[in-house]
Amino acid sequence: MKKITKKLLCVLLTAVLLSSSVLPTFAMSEFAWDFVWESADAKAGLIMFVGSDETERNFTWYTPDENTPEVTVSSDILMLDAETFTGTSEKATEGDYVNHVTIKGLEYGTTYYYKATSGDYESAVYSFTTASENEFKAVYMTDIHITDDEENPDSLCTTSFNFNNTLEDVLARESDVSLILSAGDQATEGRAAEYKSFTASPILKSIPVATTIGNHDRKGAEYKTFANLPNEYEEAMISSYVGDNYWFVKGDVLFLVADTNNASGADHYEFVKKAVEANPDVKWRVMMAHHDLYSGRIPHRESENELLRLMWAPIVDEFAIDLVLLGHSHFYTVSNVLYNNRNAAPFAPEMVDPAGTVYMVSCSINRPRTEEELGLNEEIGFDYLTMEPTYNILTCNEDSITVESYEVGAEDAFNSFTIKKTTNEGGHEYEESYFASIFNNLVRKIGTIYALFNNIGRYNDLKEDGFDVNFFDCLLGK
After folding, report:
1. Are residues 451 and 411 in the same domain?
2. Is residue 344 part of a domain?
3. What is the 3 state secondary structure string of 272-302?
4. What pTM, to 2 d.p., does this model score?
5. Of 182, 359, 360, 478, which has the fewest CB atoms closer than 10 Å, so is most exposed?
6. What is the tens place of the pLDDT at every residue in 137-189?
C-alpha cells in the first residue's frame, strides 16, 4: 500500500512540476526531489537535445526492450491535431535500448506539448517554447560531473539534485532561457547510470541541451549512444569513438561544438570550414569545447594546453570565431581579445568589433576547485576565484552577445561583458603567411596521426573496463 501511495504521489507531483508550460522557478526541496528522482521519466532518462535549428528538437530515452519510439507533439494543450514522429532504437553500450527521435517543422515563439512512447513506456506530457527568430537567452555551464561513486550510494541522486537546483536558480533569474550549453564532463566515469541521472531534472524535458564531450565523458562509452545531436561531422577520418563534432544554429548564432579529446586537427579544420560554408549569412560564431586553452590556472597542464593552442588558435582565427566557451580547469577566467595566440586588445566590459576572439572558462557545478593552484597566463583579462558553482547567461541578438556570470544563489553578477559587431565580419581579419600555412597544416596532420595511436590506447582501456568494442571501430572512432 505504501509503495502504491508513493507512486501516486510521484505521478501527481511530477505532473504538476512537468506538464505546465510555466517551469518551476524555486529551489526544489529534497522531499520534492525524491519524488522526481523516482519518476518513470527520470528512470527512463528522457531528455531534449537541440536540433539543427529552432525548428527542430532531438529526444533520447532508454527502455529495457527494443520497440519503435515515437514523440507526439502539438501546439494545443489538449494535444489536438498532434503530429507523431518516429525514430530509431538501438542497443546501448551498457544494456537497455536507447531511443532517438527528431521532431521537425516547429515555428518560432510557439509553445508546444509533447509525450514520448515506446512499447510499454509512455512519458508525462511536457511543454517547451521555441525562441524568437533573432533573439534568445542561453545558459552556459560546465563540468556538471554527475557521479556514480561506489562508496556513496546517494552520489547519483545528490549530484543530479545539485544540477537541478542550479537550473532552478537560472530560471528564477531569467525565466526565458531557451538553451542549455554544457561544455563537457556531464558524467564522471562516462557510465549509463550517470547519463540517466544527468537527465533527471524536469527542466531538461522543456529546455533543449547542447552537450560537449569532456575527458571524463570519454572514460566510458555510453555517451556514444546517449547523445542525440544534429549535424554530426560523420565524414571525419578520426574521431574519439564516443562522438563527433557537430553544429547548430539558433537565432543569428552558429554554434560549433568540438571534441578537444580528439587530436585530429585535419578533421577539426574541415568540420569548421564546412559548417561555416553551410551557414554563410549567420552573423555570430560561438565555439564550445571542453579543454581550457589559456587560463594557466593549473600549471602542470600547461604543456597540454600549449599543444591544444597550436592546433586550435589558427582555426579559431581563420574562421573568425567570436566567443569560445570552455571547461576542464574548474576555474573561472575570461581572456583578453586574442589573435594569433597573442593579446590583440584588453578585456573590457564592452568590446566593439574586437579584432580577435574571447575565450572563457566557467567553474564546475559539482566539483569546485580549491585555491591551491594559482597560475595565471598573461592572456587572461578577468578571473574570479570561488568555491561556489557558477553559471553564465548569454543574451544573444543581431548586434551583440552579452555574458553575465553568477554564483548559484547570489543576487548580482560577479562579471559581465558584451561583444558588439557593427558588421557580420566585425573586427576580424585573417592573414596567414606561406610558412605559417605550412606549419599549421603540419600540426594538423601530426595531430591526426597522434589521434590514431591515442585511440589504440582508448581501445585497451575500454576493453579492460568490460566494454564490447571493435578494434577498428575504436581506431577510427566510428
Report:
1. no
2. yes
3. HHHHHHHCCCCCEEEEECCCCCCCCCCHHHH
4. 0.92
5. 478
6. 999 999 999 999 988 999 999 999 999 999 999 999 999 999 999 999 999 99
